[in-house]
Design goal:
Length: 98
């Protein structure tokens, strides 16, 4: 089985929104729930130093199936509600690591 790695580039509504988004995900327990999911190897956010509204999520999963199951978990509904408050757009990119 091949690891499944993706990068999600978020554009927040403002610099403050970028910070509040991650804080609310943490406070709600969503991040700890995701990181405890079967097959989750890495789930980390990084701030852009060039654009104060850009936030990058790096996800690494045991395989694609684990990531697909992740998207159906109840806490992902909460994550999407939080995202709608703070994020204008998101671009997903699959990363192939050899």
């Amino acid at each position: 089985m091949e690891k499944f790695t993706i990068c999600v580039i978020y554009k927040a509504k403002s610099a403050l929104a970028r910070e509040e988004f991650v804080k609310e995900l943490e406070k709600s327990g969503v991040l700890s729930s995701i990181r405890a999911e079967n097959g989750c190897l890495k789930y980390e956010y990084y701030n852009s130093v060039e654009d104060e509204t850009r936030l990058v999520l790096f996800e690494e999963w045991q395989d694609k199936e684990c990531q697909q199951v992740h998207m159906t978990q109840p806490h992902m509904r909460t994550a999407m509600e939080i995202k709608a408050k703070y994020i204008d757009s998101a671009e997903l990119k699959q990363i192939k690591i050899s």
